[in-house]
Amino acid sequence: MSTGFEEFAAAQVTPLLRYATVLTGDPHLAQDVVQEVLIRAQQKWARIGSVDAPAAYLKRMVTNEYLGWRRRLKAHLPLTGVDPPQPDHTDHYDEREAMLQRIDRLPRKQKAAVVLRYYEGCDDAEIATVLGCAQVTVRSHISRALAVLRADERVRQSL
Amino acid sequence: MNDTTETLITDALRQRAERTPPPGAVLAALHRPRRARKPLLLVLAAAGTTAAAAALVVTTVNGPTAGQAPPAQQLGTTSAPAPVPVADVPTRALEYRPGVMLDGYTERERTIGPWGTSRIYAPGATDSGSPVVRFAVFTTIAGDMAPKVENASVGDRTTVGGATAAWFGDNLYWNVAPGRVLSVSLEHVTGVDVRAQTRRIADSVAADTTSMRIPFSLNEYPYVEVRGSGAADWTIAGTSDVDDVRYDVELLRIAEAPANSTPTTVDGKPAHYTADGFGLLAVQLAPNLQVRVKPNEFKTVKDQPVPPDLETEHAPVEVLTRVAAALSVDANPDVAWIGTL
């Protein structure tokens, strides 16, 4: 690896893996996605390394990879289940698991927008750049996703 | 704003982030030497060829496909006819197979992926939501999976054929050998004791010396899906990377040109190109065999700023012609296993 890329990869691999894990819900698929993205970035490092925010560009590549993995995801085993349940020291574990299941049922772009907003803390402009869409589209994605998640939450609470 | 819902979303996503795998495997992959890629020649298949061995498949593929698993250590039996080897067509060793299956289930789908292989058995179509039995052999990611099987909670631990195994939900995983993790999953199967049937199938798994011919050329990160209801009814799709851009590749049993396309040729074979979408090139390899290539990624949305030279709005015919010419296609795809046990 070139020194510049090596340092970049070492610094960014964990944040990218974390983002990909949250996005895909599958640690192994996250590894696949991040590995492929980093390898492509390595090959194009002369150009990617010179853009203003290579880390943001890599995040966009990870997102595109996720959005383009419909076929792979379907064929992929439900590896989420491979991860042993994490020990939970609060009373909210089931609540969070239920929310994750609802998030996973969102359309992919809505889900990506939700992850970028509520996990990565991105604003509309940053999400628009990552998703490659207009800010108004981002607001639409978030609004629709929240409407669904809130409705699901109300249904769940009424049970 | 519903702060409770938004807080719950954030908490839930943070909880998921705790499952982030360690970065070692990814960083190690970046250091692996890349297999030298040589240009491959497009398959020139004789029209109406009836035997795979007779197909003219000309490639310059050398050596095994990257990531190809070593052959199984034991001899096994298989109900599916062994594929006829074709010189220079890459193959993938399947290594293991189930010895028993649910009544009425036959093999309908195989996937060769960067993580290993999977075989899907079903009584009918394998569309989403259909009942299927999924059997997988994990290779490249086995190093990450095996410890999770090993360290499963005590109540989930078991063994399969003496190997360490664990239940994750109703999916059974076991560390069959160093570098190999197997799994059996029943999906959308009703009316049976799922765990009992999963266990029965897992206990029957044996070594399989069969290899599968890979339908079209792949590289370091192969991905191809073959599915169908019989040897005469199949679809093959996957991806292939050329010059670091990923392309969707489909093998189709059709002769129709894509809509809004114009005629061209690729290595003397009739072809059609359309600039619609991100570009698509269809090359007719035989009267009823067509390969289609189109870009899979680096798609841009017109209203967004794009870093210079990093994106492609659509692939021109010259680019897709070069991609098609870089493919090696098995003109008689290995599909005889479809519908067998």
Task: Tell me what you see in this structure.
- The complex is a heterodimer of chains A (159) and B (341).
- Chain A has 159 residues and is mostly helical.
- By secondary structure, chain B is an alpha+beta fold.
- Chain B has 5 helices and 16 strands.
- In chain B, the strands form 2 sheets. In chain B, strands 5-6-7-8-4-3-2-10-11-12-16-15-14-13 form a 14-stranded antiparallel sheet, with helices on both faces.
- Chain B is globular.
- Chains A and B meet through helix 1, helix 2, helix 4, helix 5 and helix 6 of A and helix 1, helix 2, strand 2, helix 3 and strand 8 of B.
What's the structural blueprint in terms of helices and strands?
The complex is a heterodimer of chains A (159) and B (341).
Chain A: H1 3-24, H2 27-43, H3 45-48, H4 54-67, H5 70-75, H6 93-104, H7 108-118, H8 124-131, H9 135-158
Helix pairs in contact in A: 1-2, 1-4, 2-4, 7-9, 8-9
Chain B: H1 3-17, H2 24-31, E1 91-97, E2 106-113, E3 116-122, E4 132-138, H3 142-150, E5 157-160, E6 163-168, E7 171-177, E8 180-187, H4 194-203, E9 206-213, E10 223-230, E11 233-242, E12 245-252, E13 262-266, E14 269-274, E15 280-286, E16 289-295, H5 317-325
Antiparallel strand pairs in B: 1-9, 2-3, 2-10, 3-4, 4-8, 5-6, 6-7, 7-8, 10-11, 11-12, 12-16, 13-14, 14-15, 15-16
**Which structural category do the helix and sheet elements of chain A fall into?**
mainly alpha
Classify the beta-strand content of chain A into a percent band: under 5%
The greatest interface between two protein chains, and residues involved on each side, is: A-B, 67 and 68 residues
Order of helices and strands of chain A: HHHHHHHHH
